[in-house]
Design goal:
Elements: H1 2-9, E1 15-22, E2 30-34, E3 42-44, H2 47-65, H3 75-78, E4 100-106, E5 112-119, H4 120-125, E6 130-134, E7 188-190, E8 193-195, H5 202-221, H6 226-247, H7 250-274, H8 289-305, H9 311-323, E9 329-332, H10 334-339, H11 345-354, H12 364-368, E10 376-379, H13 397-411, H14 423-434, E11 449-450, H15 451-458, H16 465-474, E12 478-484, E13 487-492
Antiparallel strand pairs: 1-2, 1-5, 2-3, 4-5, 4-6, 7-8, 9-10, 11-13, 12-13
Length: 518
């Protein structure tokens, strides 16, 4: 009867849920809805503004709420929450316990924000919940000593017990009959590091735990959202910097710097995928700064390790290297080789086989006649990684496919496709695209490229380079290009800007083409 009386005096726990939804397909605007009936839906022009508004809206509700109410019933129990109960046919009914708290949970993907009044046990059962305020548990009426109004006087729940005078006239110390409640210790893991439960400030500990949960949720989501991932890395950089300041651990500061670099790289990749913030809205064939660096690394590797001299052998070496870049092996069909822009593909391939650089399962003639459904396996021994090691370039399947596609599309450009176009001109086209600035100017700073280095990438003499530069101008690959005093200046034409691989500012590209020092 006493428990029923207590339950009847409780009021329903409050809850607030703010959601962010897209207005429509291919529309950047979003709509923010609140579960409270008095709050009207709000439309914002972008997801970033929507998230900012949603967070501010929920914060306003929490400030107006005035904290959790001790007499509030657990909102989780009212909604049938089973997170804190055992499962199974014979499992006991859910049991709430502890003080009433105000808990907040945020979707790691930034789609909803929720706050609610619940018991401490339910809040602890939600892995992403964060307790922002606690209420003092109400004192049950049965626990009040019968001393109001004299011996045997009736007691009411609103009445409090008068202070009992001690021997010295003061108040006696409060006594507790049971053990002290155990304080819940939040623990978590982020970037393969355990977050200490006693880390201070508490807000830093909670942020690190939430970051770890957010990264794991992103990995399980299956839907790449580069903008959200960049936000997570920026939060990680800030949190790890604060953690390093608090503990003096230098490895944490290094982790923070890596997170900053990751955030910048992901934002650039996102910008080039969507065209946001890119001059002219360029959607590039290679979307990542890592891919651009790999392209320059491949060109330099082929320059330094080509087994046969001459531009045609250099071009075929490049295309076959991209086929076998990861494991040293790959598949090639006769249609592939015959479609590549080479004067005598069979003879060039035979030269590479005779040099021992590449191994094929049969003769060159058999490879050239192989059908697409029956490709020939090739092996490049120098690219086979050692046991337990990665290949010489260190990229994965997706990057290899993208790089191979970039090279093949570049040398097979509609204006370079003529059979009479020299292989050196095609190599020069790729070299210029791979060493350009964000707006297409040659050189990382747009100050030009050293002619001798360009010539070495194309397997020609420096004195021959001017004729190939003029060809690229006539093919509308380069604009305003000029060879003067050992430097090639100019820019990529508007139509080939998607092939560009901008040199990231401040990057030290080993093996790349030198830019002019001004």
């Amino acid at each position: 009867m006493a428990q029923a009386h207590v339950d009847s005096e409780r009021v329903a726990g409050r809850s607030w849920t703010v959601r962010l939804d897209a207005v429509g397909r291919d529309v950047a605007a979003v709509k923010v809805d609140c579960s409270r009936p008095a709050c009207a839906a709000r439309q914002l022009p972008s997801a970033a503004e929507g998230r900012t508004y949603a967070g501010a809206h929920l914060t306003a509700h929490l400030r107006a709420a005035g904290g959790p109410r001790p007499e509030a019933a657990c909102a989780c129990r009212a909604e049938g929450c089973q997170a804190h109960a055992e499962t199974g046919r014979n499992a006991p009914a859910p049991q709430c316990g502890g003080a009433v708290v105000l808990a907040v949970a945020v979707d790691p993907m930034g789609r909803w924000w929720r706050a609610w009044e619940c018991c401490a046990r339910c809040a602890a059962a939600h892995p992403t919940a964060r307790v922002v305020a606690s209420a003092q548990a109400p004192v049950p009426s049965a626990a009040v000593p019968p001393s109001v109004g004299g011996v045997g006087a009736p007691l009411f729940s609103a009445a409090g017990a008068p202070p009992v005078q001690g021997p010295g006239g003061g108040l006696p110390p409060q006594r507790t009959n049971g053990p002290k409640p155990r304080r819940l210790r939040r623990q978590g893991k982020v970037a393969q590091r355990l977050v200490p439960h006693d880390l201070r400030p508490v807000s830093l500990r909670d942020e690190l735990i939430e970051l770890g949960d957010a990264f794991r949720a992103y990995q399980k989501s299956g839907e790449p959202d580069l903008a959200s991932l960049a936000d997570l890395h920026e939060r990680k950089a800030q949190a790890f910097t604060t953690w390093a300041d608090a503990t003096g651990d230098g490895s944490l500061r290094a982790e923070a710097r890596r997170a900053e670099q990751a955030a910048a790289t992901i934002r650039t990749q996102h910008a080039h995928r969507t065209g946001e913030g890119v001059p002219g809205g360029i959607e590039r064939v290679l979307t990542s700064p890592n891919h651009w660096s790999y392209a320059r690394k491949i060109l330099a590797h082929v320059r330094d390790h080509a087994p046969v001299p001459g531009p045609e052998a250099r071009l075929l070496t490049l295309l076959l290297t991209l086929r076998a870049a990861r494991t040293g092996s790959g598949n090639v069909t006769g249609q592939d080789v015959n479609g590549w822009p080479l004067g005598d593909a069979g003879q060039v391939l035979q030269d590479l086989v005779d040099s021992g650089w590449i191994e094929i399962p049969s003769t060159v003639e058999d490879l050239l006649t192989s059908a697409p459904e029956n490709p020939s396996a090739i092996l490049v021994p120098s690219l086979v990684p050692g046991e337990g090691m990665v290949g010489p370039f260190g990229f994965g399947k997706v990057a290899r496919t993208k790089l191979s596609g970039w090279a093949q599309k570049g040398v097979g450009d509609r204006k370079l496709r003529k059979k009479k176009t020299p292989a050196a001109t095609r190599l020069l086209a790729l070299a210029c695209a791979a060493h350009s600035s964000a707006d297409g100017s040659l050189g990382g700073d747009g100050d030009g490229l050293e002619a001798a280095e360009l010539a070495s990438l194309c397997a020609v003499e420096e004195g021959q380079l001017g004729a190939f530069v003029d060809q690229l101008v006539s093919f509308d690959w380069l604009a305003e290009a000029e060879l003067s005093e050992g430097w090639v200046t100019g820019r990529l034409s508007e139509r080939v800007l998607p092939f560009g691989c901008p040199v990231v500012e401040g990057a030290d590209e080993a093996g790349g083409v030198n830019a002019r020092n001004t």
